[in-house]
Specification:
The complex is a heterodimer of chains A (294) and B (222). Chain A is an alpha+beta fold and 294 residues long. Chain A contains 8 helices and 4 strands; from the N terminus they run αβαβαβαβαααα. Chain A is 67% helix and 8% strand. With 222 residues, chain B is an alpha/beta fold. Chain B is 35% helix and 25% strand. Chain B contains 7 helices and 10 strands. Chain B starts with a strand and ends in a 6-residue tail after the last strand. Classes of the chains: A alpha+beta (294), B alpha/beta (222).
């Protein structure tokens, strides 16, 4: 027996529309933006640390007065190269020195007219092989004005500062995750309250926990996933803007800024994590409510 | 089929709503539970329907100890129970047909089978013309008939009704009891709670009387 016009639908008792869902989406988007920026920043910082370590970890710079003669320079180079623990030494020509100073002095300064010091890059061999104090003593005998700069001291300070920065970024990401969790809990609790009659009815009619929990988890997780995606994409855009801005200021080399494959992975993880965190929080809220029902 | 042993129910620090209720209902039996408002009838039905947990005692349904059963098992047990709530509890945003078919949707019954079951009930209860209506467009008697249809749609092993002579009036109560009688003849256990003792007495079935949480068993063996 059939009844004409009876609309049989596949939908089961739907939840009441949640006016807070876009609020959750907006909060998660902001948190995802923060977390994604942090994630990309951590990658950039790790790259920078590696580059600093590679560039500065095995190099000393010897600085000689601008009027040092070529003969004196050769004597100094010979002395350095004969020193145990030194893998090589190379004098920088004035053009290269000028290029190194350009980020600090700018392009408009006539570097050619400045009394630039003569710089020698000293590449250190195996760790611990070089007697730095001994080298300084010997250099005094042939070039009393020579100044030896050990970049490793700066490197240690840089690495220490970047470690603190990493910790701050990770803390910010944890806070973002916590706020996402809190927002999801509040939203799911509100949905639970608004739909308590429906949930009680479904429970009474034999719906299992999975069915009831799913009614909260799917919309909450879905809106958080969407918010996470929006936030992650916004973070990618922000990072590129920062890249362009720093490049226009001539600071491109100071901030490694490319959203590469790893960056895209960060964006994907942040997006998925947003959805998973919110869905898990909603599931726990629903589970807690269900425990009160036999 | 249904066995309650020393059942007690207390909300918070309040007095016991049910006090040591023991009861055994055989398959195909039909009982009324009578008592004044607040005597504990609804609480008793809710506990049997696994909508509330007792504070003490045990509930055995279909030879399964409900406390020992897991949550999934209790959900499966609830699917074997049809209940007509005092306030009907129809979903306002679903049509009459969708409300009646809701238990089958929860079960995952296919749409053709669901359509067939629901259509049969709609026709039987004289609600075919109301299939597309929303519950708030129905009279109280029609809403109660929809609630009855929803309780029957699974052809349950246990039928419970809370105050059938409620807002729908005695005629709907009569229809509900007549329907439940037929189900009992097919082996379904029936328990109807009502404060209208005179209404219950006219059918000649055993009466259980609840008074301040104590159950008088009448002629039903505990």
């Amino acid at each position: 027996m059939t009844i004409a016009g009876w609309p049989v639908t596949a939908r089961v008792l739907p939840m009441a529309p949640d006016p807070m869902r876009w609020c959750l989406g907006a909060i998660v988007a902001v948190m995802a933006w923060l977390a994604a920026l942090g994630g990309i920043g951590l990658i950039a910082l790790a790259d920078a640390r590696r580059d600093w370590d590679r560039a500065l970890g095995d190099v000393l710079t010897l600085q000689l007065p601008a009027d040092t003669s070529a003969a004196r320079l050769e004597v100094v180079l010979a002395l350095v190269r004969q020193t145990t623990g030194v893998a090589g030494a190379q004098a920088l020509d004035p053009a290269e020195t000028a290029r190194l100073l350009e980020p600090w002095l700018g392009k408009s300064v006539p570097i050619d007219l400045l009394p630039l010091p003569r710089l020698v890059d000293i590449h250190i061999g195996p760790p611990g092989a070089l007697d730095l104090d001994g080298l300084q003593q010997r250099l005094k005998s042939v070039a009393p004005e020579a100044r030896l700069e050990d970049h490793r001291l700066w490197l240690v300070k840089l690495l220490s500062a970047s470690s603190r920065l990493q910790a701050i970024v990770i803390a910010a990401m944890i806070v973002a995750a916590a706020i996402t969790t809190l927002a999801a809990v509040v939203t799911a609790s509100g949905a639970l309250t608004r739909n308590s009659d429906r949930l009680v009815l479904l429970h009474a009619l034999g719906a299992d926990d999975f069915d009831v929990i799913g009614r909260l988890v799917i919309p909450t997780g879905g809106i958080a996933l969407l918010g996470g995606a929006v936030g992650a994409l916004a973070a990618a855009g922000t990072w590129q803007v920062v890249t362009v801005a720093t490049a226009s200021l001539g600071l491109a080399s100071a901030i490694p800024t490319v959203v590469d494959g790893r960056g895209i992975l960060v964006l994907a993880v942040v997006t998925l994590a947003s959805g998973i965190i919110a869905a898990t929080a909603a599931a726990l809220v629903a589970r807690r409510a269900l425990v009160r029902m036999p | 089929m249904v066995r309650l042993e020393q059942l007690g129910k207390r909300y918070g620090d309040g007095p016991e709503i049910l006090r040591g209720v023991s009861l055994s209902l055989a398959p195909g039996s039909f009982h009324f539970v009578t008592g004044a408002s607040g005597a504990g009838k609804t609480t008793l039905l809710n506990i049997i329907a696994l909508a509330e947990a007792p504070s003490r005692g045990s509930v055995t349904l279909f030879d399964i100890d409900t406390e020992a059963a897991g949550r999934a098992a209790r959900a499966r047990l609830r699917r074997r129970i049809g209940i007509v709530f005092q306030d009907c509890r129809l979903a306002a945003e679903l049509s009459v047909a969708e409300n009646i078919g809701l238990p089958l949707q929860i079960d995952g019954t296919s749409e053709p089978a669901r359509r067939a079951h629901v259509a049969e009930l709609l026709e039987w209860l004289g609600l075919a013309e109301k299939a597309e209506e929303r519950p708030n467009a129905l009279s109280a008697a029609e809403r109660q008939r929809v609630a009855l249809a929803r309780a029957l749609v699974r052809r349950p092993d246990l039928l419970l009704a809370d105050e059938p002579v409620g807002e729908g009036g005695e005629a709907v109560g009569q229809l509900l009891v007549d329907t439940f009688e037929r189900m009992a003849q097919l082996g379904t256990t029936v328990l109807v709670a009502t404060r209208a003792t005179a209404f219950a007495e006219q059918f000649g079935y055993p009466l259980l009387h609840l008074d301040a949480g104590d159950l008088s068993l009448g002629d039903v063996a505990p």
